[in-house]
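HUMAN: Ready with one sample?

ASSISTANT:
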Amino acid sequence: MAPYEALYGRRCRSPICWDDVEGRKLLGPEIVQLTVEKVCLIRDPPTKGVIHFGVRGKLSPRFIGLFEILERIGEVAYRLALPPSLSRVHDVFHVSMLKKFIPNPDHVIQFSDFDLNNDLTYEERPIKIVDLKKQTLRMRVIPYVKVQWINHTEHEATWELESKMREKYSYLF
């Protein structure tokens, strides 16, 4: 007899054994599918009218996105413009469920005109050299220049080989 049966006086009922096995045998994919269905029903009970926005549990997102406020309803409720993916969710929320949006001016993209080629590509041109450095590898010294490119900020400057930059863009030196 199995240790579980000796201890508790009955047979162990694991998820694999939750089906009546008298009179028939399940083999291969059928038993796996039946077990998966039963395990899913037990682990994921039906929700009673509650709609969750994303992953449930510890790692669920606290706020799900930015939505426009359409109108104020009463003292503490607001009607929001929700996307079609949230059509099953009621569009009126209590103020405690909302968070004020604080815009970050660093995220605003400044658009400037640039010439597009026929294949919708454009040529990056350097504006200026921001910094110089020499990388030492054993017996060799490799000079690099930090280049700011057109349509990019100085923060987005890249390190390039000085020899390549002198070759292509000699006017910078």
